[in-house]
Design brief:
The complex is a heterodimer of chains A (about 170) and B (about 200). With about 170 residues, chain A is of the alpha+beta class. Helices cover about 40% and strands about 25% of the residues of chain A. Chain B is built from 4 helices and 8 strands, in the order E-H-E-E-E-E-H-E-E-H-H-E. In chain B, strands 2, 3, 4, 5, 6, 7 and 8 form a 7-stranded antiparallel β-sheet that branches. Classes of the chains: A alpha+beta (about 170), B alpha+beta (about 200). Strand 2 of chain A pairs parallel with strand 1 of chain B, so a sheet runs across the interface.
């Protein structure tokens, strides 16, 4: 039994500790049993909004990374096709789109039932959520606001620098 | 606004936990009384425990894929059909909507051959992979299939559009008077049985 287990909010406390140690500048919002730590983040391919959602009641944790750019209605199915192909290559996490309004977000989640959320797990999920979206983002935008087809976008995505892919933790299922 | 650098996502070797991953999955399967086949891939780097589970309305071949040195577990639940080429765009639209609602699990759809599967993965790093974690992950992948497969089948065999199938799924939820989030409840495993 860890000391975190003895806390009534071990997941939220672990997340806050992690963010403090990593130097994140965040805001805290509590809603429906969730403690959400939100922050803006700049990655090489764009600026995003991140939320670290601690759910102690259900013993689970998720990292959400939101795009500030919404996909126009006319391009949503094309982007969905691209994301379907991208998601098939990702081990941890997925990129989601709300087909009703074009919102894009990258998600990495875990349950820690009867276990505990370690700093290393938070780091792993943080990396997956951010890098999944950052890596796929340029081609997503090229489909949404250019003439690139989903198939061509995915082929280009697959051919991106291998070091970038390795850094993103890409692994095939 | 914070500025983040891209750090490598290095797998954390955890020799002390290597047996725990396999043991935790086996403990769960044994507790359920489910039979499974064990095999190895990549010269023992991956241990696969494969079972067949009845998940209404299908029988799912479900693989518990344990990466020994990578210290990770993936549960891959397959359905016994592939989507014909002329229906893949409709199915893709339906699954995109479904994925937006799933917390732990996700649907993966191979647009090249029509295979689709529900997946849940975890890299426990230096935390223990408990039987309770395996239980929730297993529950959520099969709940996802149970909840969304009828719409998939309606597209494939009922000639419904993605929108029609999705609306029918929403209507079913409303009729049941409960928003059945596929990944919220702790796993009452009784609804599934092995073949």
């Amino acid at each position: 039994m860890t000391s975190e287990k003895e806390s009534p909010r071990p997941i939220a406390e672990a997340v806050q500790k992690y963010l403090d140690q990593e130097g994140w500048n965040y805001e805290i919002d509590e809603r429906d049993g969730l403690t959400m730590y939100g922050a803006g983040v700049t990655l090489p391919n764009g600026e995003f909004r991140s939320s670290f959602d601690a759910d102690d009641g259900r013993e689970r944790f998720g990292v959400y990374v939101y795009s500030a750019i919404y996909i126009p209605e006319a391009k949503r199915l094309a982007v969905a096709e691209y994301l379907t192909r991208v998601n098939y290559t990702r081990y941890l996490g997925k990129i989601e789109m709300d087909l009703d309004d074009g919102e894009i977000r990258s998600v990495a989640t875990v349950t820690v039932a009867d276990s505990h959320l370690s700093q290393a797990m938070i780091n792993s999920l943080e990396n997956a959520a951010h890098f999944n979206l950052n890596d796929a983002y340029p081609w997503m935008m090229a489909i949404a606001f250019g003439e690139l087809t989903p198939q061509a976008a995915f082929e280009s995505y697959q051919g991106r620098d291998e070091k970038e892919a390795a850094a993103s933790g890409e692994v095939s299922a | 606004m914070s500025t983040r650098k891209q750090d490598s996502q290095q797998p954390t070797p955890a020799p002390a936990q290597q047996s725990t991953l396999v043991d935790s999955v086996k403990a769960y399967l044994d507790d359920k009384g489910w039979s499974y086949e064990q095999s190895e891939r990549d010269e023992g780097e991956r241990v696969l425990l494969t079972t067949r589970i009845h998940v209404e309305p299908v029988v799912s071949r479900t693989v518990f894929d344990i990466g020994v040195s990578r210290n990770r577990l993936g549960i891959f639940a397959y359905v016994p059909f592939t989507v014909p080429e002329d229906q893949r765009m409709a199915v893709m639209e339906y699954l995109t909507r479904a994925n937006y609602r799933l917390f732990l699990a996700k649907f993966e759809f191979d647009l090249n051959d029509g295979e689709w599967r529900a997946v849940c993965t975890v890299i426990p790093e230096d935390s223990a992979l408990t039987v309770a974690m395996v239980r929730r992950m297993r529950h959520d992948v099969h709940s996802a299939i149970e909840h969304y497969a009828p719409g998939m089948l309606a597209i494939m065999y009922g000639r419904q559009t993605a929108q029609q199938a999705w609306q029918a799924m929403l209507d079913r939820e409303a009729a049941e008077e409960s928003v059945e989030e596929s990944d919220t409840a702790e796993a009452p495993d009784a609804e599934t049985t092995t073949e």
